[in-house]
Amino acid sequence: MAFRARVLTLYPEMFPGHLGFSLAGKAMERGQWSLDLVQIRDFATDRHRTVDDTPAGGGAGMVLKADVLARAIDSAGENDPRPRLLMSPRGRPLTQQRVRELAAGDGVIIVCGRFEGVDQRVIEARGLEEVSIGDYVLSGGEPAALILLDAIIRILPGVMGNDLSGLHESFEGGLLEHPHYTRPQEWEGREIPSVLTSGNHGAIEKWRHQEAVRLTQERRPDLLDSAKTENNG
After folding, report:
1. Taking burial as the number of CB atoms within 10 A of a residue's CB, which of 5, 92, 170, 183 is the most buried?
2. Does this model's pTM top 0.85?
3. What is d(CA 230, CA 9) in angstroms, rounded to the nearest whole number?
4. Cis peptide before 16 (omega within 30 of 0)
5. Is the peptide bond before 81 cis (omega within 30 degrees of 0)?
6. 158: left (phi > 0), else alpha (psi -120 to 50), else beta?
């Protein structure tokens, strides 16, 4: 069964964006995943098609209205089992583990926030899972949704030419990925590490693991700390 993505947005023209090219684009052409775009503004009921209002209690900006967004979410059908995700900087950080969980399902429903945020009542009433792609703020949820879908689609069965490619990269196994090299053997006085051309596969795997640990310790020691906590738990 194809992976079905449904995206709720005020800017459907931003999709499929880069997902229409390369691996994701070819996978869409083959029917391995599909994209259904929903214009949130279509569910406004006034003649101005209003989707936002001033924040209760005052303050800057506008807030996406609960009633309009709820109707857009409900258009998928009340029995739709797909996870409902809201791209939000205050959400739980996206991890490779969560990406794999989502990729194993039938699809996702993604809400792209705008303005100052989304009325909290619709988040609670419709069971939206808030997801963050990093500790920074974007102008809207659309770029974040594209990144989330990119991460999911590339590991769907059959999308990558070699499905093992997705098992030996950063964040798989709790480590950053080891360095890569290819021909020429020497470039600007820099040589490919001799172990990689030794033909000794055991030594190569050991070197790659050691390098992955070294890079993780240097750049993301929090990943090692998390792994230790899980093992001790």
Report:
1. 5
2. yes
3. 37
4. yes
5. no
6. left
Helix (H) or strand (E) holding 212: helix 201-219
Residue entry with tokens 């089992």: 81
Q: How many residues does the chain have?
A: 233
Closest CA to 173 of 212, 204, 207, 206: 212
Q: How does pLDDT run along the chain (233 residues), one tens digit per residue?
A: 899 999 999 999 999 999 999 999 999 999 999 999 999 999 999 999 999 999 999 999 999 999 999 999 999 998 999 999 999 999 999 999 999 999 999 999 999 999 999 999 999 999 999 999 999 999 999 999 999 999 999 999 999 975 555 555 656 678 999 999 999 999 999 999 999 999 999 999 999 999 999 999 999 999 987 756 555 65
Q: Give the other-Cβ count within 10 Å of 32's Cβ.
A: 18
Contact 94, 151 (CB under 8 A): yes
Map tokens 């500790």 to a residue: 135
